[in-house]
Amino acid sequence: AIQACITHQRYASGFVDHDAWFADHMIEAGIEGGMISKGCSIHATSNVQYSTLLEHVQVEENVSLSGCLVGANAHIGSGSRLENVVIDFNAYVPEHTVQSGGTYPNTSESS
Predict the structure, then answer these.
(1) From CA 84, how far away is CA 74, in angstroms rounded?
(2) pLDDT digit string (tens) for 32-42?
(3) Is the pLDDT reported for residue 70 higher than 50?
(4) What is the largest CA-CA distance in the chain?
């Protein structure tokens, strides 16, 4: 869906750089085919592929996000590797977290 919006210029604000959409400013990290909302901070050593980051997401160094939806105000700790994960609003993902699929936090686990 993100790629269709970029390809067909279906956005009212922000700008496109290659195949990624940015709400307010260019991010000096590896961004491929994503949507980066306003106020996001992504460390230059991190890589974001085909992911959507909602407002004010913080991504620390050496993080890899692929196919993720990251809720507003989430914080992704350094060295984390997340693939096809839906990350909740205001979530704090600890350093070196590795997860493929599902949600974070995983609300289906019993306490």
Answers:
(1) 16
(2) 888 888 999 99
(3) yes
(4) 46
Q: Which residues pair with 36 in a beta bridge?
A: 22, 53
pTM score, two decimals? 0.82
CB 51 within 8 A of CB 70: yes
Q: Cβ neighbours of residue 50 under 8 Å, at least 6 residues apart?
A: 2, 3, 32, 33, 34, 66, 67
**Could you read off the pLDDT of 3-51 as tens digits, one per residue?**
555 555 555 556 666 677 677 766 767 888 888 889 999 999 999 999 9
DSSP the chain: -HHHHHHTT--SSSEEETTEEESSS--SSEEES-EE-TT-EE-TT-EEES-EE-TT-EE-TT-EEES-EE-TT-EE-TT-EEES-EEPTT-EEPTT-EEESSEES-TTS--
